[in-house]
Design goal:
Layout: H1 3-42, H2 50-56, E1 62-71, H3 74-80, E2 86-96, E3 102-106, E4 111-117, E5 120-122, E6 134-138, H4 140-148, H5 151-160, E7 166-170, H6 171-176, E8 178-180, E9 185-187, E10 197-204, E11 216-219, E12 254-258, E13 263-275, E14 278-284, E15 318-319, H7 321-324, E16 328-331, H8 340-344, H9 353-356, E17 359-362, E18 369-382, E19 398-410, H10 413-465
Antiparallel strand pairs: 1-2, 1-19, 2-5, 3-4, 4-10, 6-7, 8-9, 10-11, 12-13, 13-14, 14-17, 15-16, 16-18, 17-18, 18-19
Length: 466
Amino acid sequence: MTCCDQRCALITGAVLGALIAVLGGILFPVGDMIIENTVNKETVLENGTLAYDTWTSVDTAIYRQFWLFDVQNPDEVVSQGAKPVLVQKGPYTYKTRFIPKRNITFNENFTVSFVLPYGAIFEPDMSVGTEDDTFTSLNLAVAGVYGLLGHKLANLIIQSSNSKLFQNRTVKELLWGYKDPMLNTMLGVFYPYNGTTDGPYTVFTGKDDIKKVATIERWMGETSLSYWNDSYCNMINGTDGSSFHPFLDKKEHLYFFSSDICRSISAIYERTVDLKGIDVYRYMLPAEALASPVENPDNQCYCTDPVITKNCSMAGLLDLTACRGTPVYLSLPHFLYGSSDLVQSVIGLSPNPDEHSIFLDVEPITGFTMRFAKRLQLNMLYGPSDDIVILNKITNYTVFPILWVNETAVLDDETADMFKKELISRLDLLEGFQIGLIAVGSIIFVSCMIGLIVVCTKKNKLSLIA
């Protein structure tokens, strides 16, 4: 091969290498566009998409784990005004959300409506005992009339039925209902539950704007709530938490509405974690979500009782009386992030962020929630009263923990493998192909350029000798 032939071959190789590298570079935005279009198409809530199949499926089991508090010194509390000594026992586990959404109706304004049926099946293999285990707990009826009625009338009702401040009830009774002898009606923390529904909900399909997919437009036929006497606190923001829009930004807050807590709330990105080989964003409920209005002015409209909350300076408590119709107070388990007064009003609590916080693990490309833990504690109030005899020895208001619940779910191994095969592996393959083209093209280009320099150098030396 002559020197000219070598130079031509090397120049051709360099050009070819450059073209291959440029092609690899071009494929990055083109590939990203293809991925974005595909993901946006598959995350719309309409028949035939991956999002719709996931949205309507009940294959992923959702569980509610309950920890109930057992009072160790009920007599001392009543006779001496002692602090309740509590011991928690659990979990008592129930499978929930196993019934598909009902009445799914697509509307003309790119929304879809549905109702969510409620049901609970006890899982003995995932529980520490049976539904017949007995606990000494606050008398729900007594706490109810204490918070809702005048104390003289409440005392007449309590004494006429010989009711006590504390009662012995089974797990099943406390959770799902029992016939109360004082009020002659059914009571229970979650009564009624089986056979009832949540909603109707109306959410955006995302077909006209993928950023709005799964965002709630209406709940119970209304675009806002009516519990808080304030337009800000009554806003229904975000999704139901099961999914969000695709291509999440770590900097944005994720908003979701929960009928369990009668309000919308937000979570913030904390870190990226590995879930069965899939990178997911972990979003946590921040401490300021239930902070006192003194620290977070946005929470001012959630403060409905200045006496109990000490002029709205108490953190960690949400009064659900207007929402539930009974004086129920919501908190995180063990009063996590709550004021010290709450934790110290009883003995036996140990708030721990790892065990008691709320989190969502969301796959950032699709916006699908792949694991979550919604942990909440339900409390009722009792306190001093000159008119209610059984409370004559009580000197302080006590927000009493009845139980706490962890509603949780995680994608199963089969779904994880399918997700990795259908999305992650294809993204990795495309990225590897792009990087490979750039690498190979760059190597060919650099090698040919080096060769060309060597050939030209040799030619120049030969010319000088000649």
